[in-house]
Amino acid sequence: MKLKVLTDKGGYLPDKYAKYSTIRKAGQPVISFPIEITEIPQSAKYLALSLIDYDAVPRTGFPFIHWLAANLPTKSIEEDFSSIFPGPQGMNSWASRFYNLDDPYVVSHYAGPNPPDNPHRYTLTVYALRHAMNVADGFYYNDFRDQLVENVLERVELVINARA
């Protein structure tokens, strides 16, 4: 599989999907970016994805999960997919007890990059799956990982930069 995400001239995720987005909920950017996915294995029944900020560890103490989605169609992902996808999406790190964000939509959908101090690198991972994951809306990352065991045909990662 191959992934492609459009970036601006500086190599960063465009502002409309990240920190400088004008469309926000509970202070977070919520318009998910389009993802071009090619060379998907023919036997794949579904896709799943995660978007994780490992550069957040020095500040938060843990990698920051920005988006989890399962049982996606085996095609490219359009802009703002997170808001229209009827399938299961998982809890992001805003759901953590370490934050005081009480917006059910924001904690269980795409919450875009919002690096506080320096540019960060975000790891987008897309998985081609043999069968649907047995998860419901609001699942957690540990359940996501458990459902990947013996279900992944192929996995691909892309690092996406976002400006502070």
Essential attributes:
single chain; 164 residues; alpha+beta; four-stranded antiparallel β-sheet; two-stranded antiparallel sheet; 12% helix
Structure description:
This protein is an alpha+beta fold. 12% of the residues lie in helices and 29% in strands. The chain is built from four helices and eight strands; from the N terminus they run βββββαβααβαβ. The chain has helices at 57-60, 81-84, 104-107, 141-148, and strands at residues 2-4, 24-25, 28-29, 36-38, 46-53, 64-72, 120-129, 152-162. The strands form three sheets. Strands 6-5-7-8 form a four-stranded antiparallel beta sheet, with helices on one face. Strands 1-4 form a two-stranded antiparallel ribbon.
State the gist of this model:
This protein is α+β, with helices and mostly antiparallel strands and 164 residues long.
Helix content: 10-25%
Mean pLDDT: 97
Low-confidence stretches: none
Straight-line N-to-C gap: 30 Å
> Measured on Cα atoms, how large is the radius of gyration?
15 Å
Which helices and strands occur, and which strands form pairs?
Elements: E1 2-4, E2 24-25, E3 28-29, E4 36-38, E5 46-53, H1 57-60, E6 64-72, H2 81-84, H3 104-107, E7 120-129, H4 141-148, E8 152-162
Antiparallel strand pairs: 1-4, 2-3, 5-6, 5-7, 7-8
